[in-house]
Amino acid sequence: MKRLLLFAMMCVCMSFVFGQKKGDKVVKVTSSEIRWWGYKVVKTVPTTHSGTVKLKSGKFTFDKTVLVDGEFVIDMKSIMAGDVSSQDEDMVKLTNDLKSTNFFDVKKFPLAKFHLTKIIPLANSDYNSTVYGDITIKGVRKTITFPANVYITQFTVVIESAKFSLNRRDFKVFYQSSLKDYFIKNEMDIQFKISTEKLDNENRTPVKKKK
């Protein structure tokens, strides 16, 4: 019995060791920008709303110098309609609506997550890669893909996504009143820029370090 118990403990220890990749390096995201767009069914400039949401944390994992995956946590309590400095009454009302149970219910679901699983290079395209991953909003996880410009130099990563669409109904983001919800398009657009280094505000490239 003692030998059997000792053997089981050795198996557990071995599985733990092999489960950890030797030489893994974790690099944190230090610069980020996430924007969103929502539309009425009759899509015009006046019926389009946009705003921001903040990244709470983000990291990339490397095996030696090879990017393995990425984990990103989004602070849904930070979601905002309009400009960050805007005090427009309508934008404040919309922001509160977005945080309520009508849409993202941020009290119950304060965080959204994105797990980057794969990056495939693209040729002859406006963007150099296709990004694959799993996004979780309001506890619902979906696998998504989107085009992006991805730049990886050793342990420096910059990702600038195209504007891509998510179906809000896939994540149970809709008005409880079906009449109000009828006038809103199901597609919401997302675009983000993240980097493991601070980005230059004008050209979105990593700022050169002073020597």
TrEMBL record:
InterPro entries: Lipid/polyisoprenoid-bd_YceI, TTHA0802/YceI-like_sf. Residues 24-197 form the Lipid/polyisoprenoid-binding YceI-like domain. Residues 1-19 form the signal peptide. It comes from the Bacteria. It holds the Pfam family YceI. Keywords: Signal. This is YceI family protein. It comes from Chryseobacterium cheonjiense.
